Hints:
The protein is mainly β.
Amino acid sequence: MATVDKTEDEWRAVLSPEQFRVLRQKGTEHPGTGEYIDKKDPGVYNCGACNAQLYKSSTKFDSHCGWPAFFDAIPGAVTRIEDRSHGMLRTEIVCSKCGSHLGHVFKGEGYRTPTDERHCVNSISLKFASEPSAKQ
């Protein structure tokens, strides 16, 4: 996968201030406020910064955590990074193409998903592309 290399000034020019805060400065949107929390339409969730395909809607599930949740990413689309911020150990997830912050992945929480993982993703880090005729 080819990577996207932009300066922070170039990112500021194409992202809204809130997108820049979350995607480039590793921010978090307030729980329960994202536009994709309850979305159930068939399609693909792309990176909000570079438009790389990240998640199929068939991997989205209701976790009731306040952010969209997925149990798996499209192979190679997401990179995992150890995150020791905020006095805890977590796994950050970023877009493999542009390095933008998506959220965090949690394991072993007992959700009845094929991977027992929850990719907790900021809605603002995503762009939904509808695929009404796609078979997932």
